[in-house]
Amino acid sequence: MYAAQKKRSVTRVAAGAAASTLVLAVAAPAALAQDSVTAVGGERLARPAVQVAPLAGAPALPAELTGRSWLIADATTGEVLAARDAHLPLPPASTLKMLFADTVLPKFDRSVEHQVTTAELASLGVGSSLVGVKENLPYRVEDLWRGVFLSSGNDAVHVLAHMNGGIERTVTEMQERARTLQARDTKVVSPDGYDMDGQVSSAYDLTLFARAGLRNADFRSYCATRTARFPGGLDKLTGRRTSFDIANTDRLLGKYPGLIGVKNGYTTNAGATFTGAAERDGRTLLVTVMHPEAQAKVYDEAASLLDWGFAAAGKVQPVGKLVEDTAAPSPGAQAEPEVGDQLPPWSRTPSLGGSRTGLAAALWTAAALGTGLAAWATARITARRRAATASAAAFEAGGATPVGGATGLGGRGHRRLARRTRALLRTARRRGFDDRP
Fold first, then answer.
1. Cα(243)–Cα(233) distance, integer angstroms
2. CA 318 – CA 311 distance, rounded (Å)
3. Which of 117, 159, 204, 208 has the fewest C-beta atoms under 10 angstroms from its C-beta?
4. pLDDT (tens digit, 9 = 90+) per residue, 16-33?
5. Which tens digit of pLDDT belongs to each residue from 183-196?
């Protein structure tokens, strides 16, 4: 019986692979979406086949690269180090969730709770990847986002999309966001990346989505999270809410040195897709691989391209460039200063991405204490000088030596400083709580 079941399983896999090959042949046009004259990021990126411009001493590209489209770029400078068919439109699978997150994530506070309805889970595609969201129960926004990034949960995507005004509105906003990012190869039909007719993206566009998303601290934190607890249903005996463990399906996270995310995907139509970011020696690289010959190869090929990119940095000429977000303020623009921007640099909240939020809170606490103590010491010295001057004047005039008062050691100035220090400490404690992983 086991042998018969195994035979049927092998037959279904073979049939699925054949169907996938056929669909890809139809869905992915042989020609690139952009011609060399109008190609975003440079004309070389619109050329077919591999594009690389090695200088003396540059390492050779990895020999076994089967991805139909791939790209490796410097996240900071935007320089594309090498690429193959960077603008080839292909089904993106769940890597499209990067665009969904970049569009919707900034809209809702992570601590907000939302009661899930039956309608929000009614239109999920057959065979969708799910995290396990239950209807008629409340979920915090941050839990839903962990479901999106770790489990690639289409159920979590649909709940967040309904919170955003519905699937149709979210798709429209995602398409508009793609336009501002100059991601011209992308056509959005579903917010979760589920196979839909006409839904495509490219290695170039997916890399743009990752680069934009990683500029958001919450995006960066979620995609770097390896495991988390997710709310479950109600225990029938106790009536209390249960929870269970979820793990990030990104197989390179925690295994490839310096990897900080970003998103993987797989569907029958799209095959395997992956976009990753890694840091090494102060350099951050972005890599995207789409449609390798086998699903598991997407991680091997992404890792080998990252290895090559770190070794080739400074030894190749860029073959193109990642364009900038047109919705972002220009480098010379003067934005209105926020409250934090008006504080001295050493007292501002440290900006640390990934899973290092605990360290950020500790640094903030230290900064708050340092600021308060520095202010107290400065005021103490000033008060002593003023008191000494006043005492000398009083002595000459035959009066009394001031002890206190507005400028004395126990006066209103020190009380204001004490209140300021306590306020900074309260802010530090709040931030330490809000930044919990």
1. 7
2. 14
3. 117
4. 444 444 334 334 444 556
5. 999 999 999 999 99
